[in-house]
Structure to design on (361 residues):
């Protein structure tokens, strides 16, 4: 477990509670667009206002943000509705200008988190500055890189840190713009229990349809809040048009969410849950026992292959296993993808055992 003693969001001095929603446009475009959007979202359960000032775009010649002039629009809109404001910083110049512009919270974007040099420069620029910093996950699914960025800030005295989960860029993914890989933020919470984690359904989804289900999923996984992009006229937005929603729609999404409790004192619930968990514990042990047996047979096969000078990998057999097991599981409600992954891992372990047998003198 990492050793980070963080200041909870409630103690950031910004009037935040233990659940924090952030909204505002992907990019600040004009003073009117920022102000109207902010006034609209402030009618809903939103506690922090966002706007991108400098935009990290995949290709040049797309809209790269209005630059420093937007800081004033953002800050003034925040003042108008009495809420703290945040923007992305990607280099030292951004840090100094955002601080000068009175921005209350900074965030480090996904592309920057991938680069330890950039993060270190930002951390150095913030040495001794008491400002909260939110760190988006790196674009690639690397938890240590994400944690490393937080540690760089922490080492410079920043203890007001939150993580933003915005999904990961994975080749071939179609459903999401950035696939969520929920197990990564879950593992982050396990490694740094005090770390607030905000989910960013806008950049995970890349469209408006998935915003609600992704937001609900984050709430069900006990995330500490949401970052959702909003715009008075989303279809005309200069960046991320497809995923932005009007302030009204934002309100509908937030109101539709069910907030579930982490625990309860109800003794009946507790005892029934315990009973079911005991069953799961037993089943998991059975699974492991079966795996152990499977590996012992794999070793036996390994000896046999060695004696007959036959390769470990038998592609035909492997194909047969995959299609047979996936069909068998599918009929009983297991997902092809997950079952395929589990089988690959089991196969990998069998190969490891057989390789050991082959190499024994
Ligand atoms: C953004 O929040 O608008 C943004 C650029 O996000 P990310 O760094 O997650 O791509
Ligand atoms: Mn965006």
């Amino acid at each position: 477990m990492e050793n980070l003693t963080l200041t909870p969001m409630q103690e950031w001095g910004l009037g935040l509670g233990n659940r924090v929603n952030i909204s505002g446009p992907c990019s600040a475009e004009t003073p009117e667009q920022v102000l109207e959007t902010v006034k609209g979202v402030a009618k809903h359960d939103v506690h922090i206002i966002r706007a991108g000032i400098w935009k990290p775009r995949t290709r040049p010649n797309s809209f790269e943000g209005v630059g420093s002039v937007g800081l004033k629009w953002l800050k003034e809109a925040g003042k108008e509705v009495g809420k703290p404001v945040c923007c992305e910083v990607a280099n030292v110049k951004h840090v100094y200008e955002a601080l000068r512009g009175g921005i209350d919270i900074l965030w480090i974007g996904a592309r920057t988190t991938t680069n330890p040099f950039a993060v270190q420069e930002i951390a150095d620029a913030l040495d001794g500055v008491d400002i909260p910093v939110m760190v988006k996950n790196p674009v690639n699914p690397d938890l240590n890189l994400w944690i490393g960025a937080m540690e760089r800030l922490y080492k410079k005295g920043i203890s007001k840190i939150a993580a933003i989960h915005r999904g990961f860029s994975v080749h071939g993914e179609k459903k999401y713009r950035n696939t969520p890989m929920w197990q990564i933020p879950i593992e982050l919470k396990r490694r740094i229990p005090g770390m607030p984690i905000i989910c960013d359904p806008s950049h995970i989804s890349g469209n408006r349809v998935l915003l609600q289900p992704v937001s609900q999923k984050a709430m069900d996984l006990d995330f500490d809040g949401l970052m959702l992009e909003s715009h008075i006229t989303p279809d005309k937005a200069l960046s991320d048009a497809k995923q932005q929603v009007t302030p009204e729609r934002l309100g509908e999404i937030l109101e539709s969410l069910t907030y579930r409790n982490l625990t309860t004192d109800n003794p009946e619930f507790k005892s029934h849950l315990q009973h079911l968990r005991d069953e799961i514990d037993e089943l998991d042990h059975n699974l492991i026992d079966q795996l152990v047996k499977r590996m012992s047979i794999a070793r036996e096969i390994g000896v046999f292959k060695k004696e007959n000078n036959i390769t470990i990998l038998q592609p035909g057999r492997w194909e047969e296993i995959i299609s047979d097991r996936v069909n068998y599981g599918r009929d009983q409600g297991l997902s092809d993808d997950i079952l395929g992954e589990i089988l690959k891992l089991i196969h990998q372990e069998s190969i490891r055992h057989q390789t050991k047998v082959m190499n024994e003198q």
The radius of gyration is 25 Å. The chain has a mean pLDDT of 96.
